Every structure is written in structure tokens, then in C-alpha cells.
Amino acid sequence: AQHQSLTTHYARFNSDEQRHHQLHVSLVTDLRDAIENDQLELYHQPQIDLRTGSIHGSEVLARWTHPEYGQISPEVFVQMAEDVGIINNLTLWVMKRAFQQQAQLIRNGHCRRLSINISASDIYIPDLANRVVELAHRYHIPTNLISLELTESVMVEDYNWLKQLISALSASGIEVSIDDYGTGYSSLYFLSQLPFTELKIDRSFVRDLHKSGRHQSIVRATTDMARSLGVMVVAEGVETEEAEALLRRYGVDVSQGYYYSRPLPFQQYQAYVERMDSVQPTAILQEKSLR
Ligand code: C2E
Ligand code: MG
Ligand code: MG
Ligand code: MG
């Protein structure tokens, strides 16, 4: 049956505040249940190492198919989880499932990195760094194969706390990435003080890169800055060959976007990695043009 979209529902009930409220409350209950009963799914979007053309790793992205409303965007349910205070449960669930899947990849001989999105309030999960390390040990994952992506808006949170957390994670070998870089609040002061190891340039600068001289200047300068800070640069939202060519010229390390692959269910991601690992690195570039 065709799912009625959530937006349509909200629009219909918008005039009726009480029913709108009821819908919200029942969705929150459903989300809580979905987290508890393992009903969310993880998709993996491949990240490509621009130097070698091989798969560097993946970013895990949560997916929720509601029994009645169908696919609900993570922009919606992650925000909802943040608003009602269950984001920590969501994040810890994602982490556990992601490590299980990564362990399976490693067991099958495909050692790949994994990036996990962390929400602002997650930084206050008690003893977060140790919890990540313990979970990684439980699944026999080397910590240096893990990145946590902190969205740039996390920079408005308690600075000293953030610094301690990032230091603790780095000391354990876990990479810390600043996600959506360029859209939020990270000042040059923060960049100079926080020991993060990766900078992820927001897709709004990357998507139309070849058409915008301004975006080219920004991406090039950001890459230069990151390089001299000794920080890795990832570009997200790469959709065209032209964008990729520019990123490679600027010296961006890792590239992610629809040009290579949409986020994939784990089984499909695993098949993609297996296929890539079975061909020569030079053949990978050809494979891309066969898409
Ligand atoms: P994000 O962390 O910036 O993730 C990248 C988003 O860009 C993903 O959207 C991905 O599907 C999309 N994307 C990738 N390549 C392209 C491209 O070439 N073009 C375009 N237009 N888009 C591209 P998605 O999966 O809908 O997730 C949206 C946001 O929701 C994420 O943004 C992240 O902030 C949040 N999110 C998703 N999963 C989780 C999660 O498990 N935990 C938390 N805390 N947040 C999550
Ligand atoms: Mg991200
Ligand atoms: Mg994000
Ligand atoms: Mg992002």
C-alpha cells in the first residue's frame, strides 16, 4: 500500500492543534519503541580515498521506516529524538549496530573505517570516550578505524568539556571530525585549540563547486588550512565528475557523495566493498564511469 507522507499528515492536522499534538506524541512513542526493538536500519555511504580510488570507509546514516507513514527522514526523527531527550539512546544504538556490522566486514577481510554522527547533547553522555572504547573492544574493532562526526553546531556547547572529550577520544585513537564545516559556529579560535583530526566540508559548498568561483576559493582555502593544521579533509555531497576533479586538485583526501554511491543498506555496501577489493585500484576509476 502507498504510504501517506508524514508531511501530508502534519499539513492536514495543522489546523487542528490537538490532533497535531497527538500525532507528535504517538510518533515519539513509536520512535522510542523502534530504538528499543531494533527497528531502525543503518545505511552506509561509501567514502572514497581520492589518492588511491579505493574505499576509505563509510558514514553510517540511520533510517526509520514507520509502519504507517513509511520512510521518515533522519532530519525529522533525529531532531525529534533531540527535542524529547532520547537522542543518546538513538546514538548508542547506532554505535552498537554499526560496530556489529563493521566487525562483520573485518571478519570477511575488508578492513574499513566507519564514521558515526554524534548530536550536540551526546557529548554529555557520561564517560562517552570510555564507552566508545569499551564497545569497540567488545566487537574487536581497532579504535583507529572509528571516526565520530560532531556537527559544527556543537561548537556552541561547553568549550572546556568539548576539549576534554575530543582529547580523550583522540588519546584512544578515535578520530574526531567536524561535520557540515562552514555552515555553523566553529571560530578559528576553536579550530586552533581543539584536537580534532578531520574536517568535513559541508555539501552546500561542494555540490555546485565547478559552477561557483566563490565556493572554489572557500574549499581550496579550507583545504590548505586543514592541511597545514595536519587535519584530514573530507568533502561531502560530491555529485559530479567536475567537482571530483577540483577536489582532487585542491588535495582533498576523501570524497563522499551520490557521484560514487547513495547510502546503501549494509548488505549492499558489503557487496560494493567486496567488488572494489577484488579489482585493481586503477580499474575502480573505470568502474565508476560504468555506473
Ligand atoms: P550528515 O551527517 O551531513 O550526512 C550527510 C547527508 O547528506 C545524508 O543525508 C546523505 O544521504 C546526504 N548526501 C550524501 N551524498 C549526497 C549528495 O551527493 N547529494 C546530496 N544532496 N546529499 C547527499 P541523510 O542520510 O538524509 O541524513 C541527514 C542528516 O541526518 C545527517 O547529515 C545527520 O546530521 C543526520 N543523521 C543521519 N543519521 C544519523 C545518526 O545516526 N545520528 C545522528 N545524530 N544524526 C544522523
Ligand atoms: Mg555526518
Ligand atoms: Mg551531521
Ligand atoms: Mg554533513
From TrEMBL:
Domain EAL positions = 24-277
Name the UniProt record assigns to this protein: EAL domain-containing protein
From which organism does this entry originate? Salinivibrio kushneri
Full-length numbering of the shown residues: 565 to 855 of 860
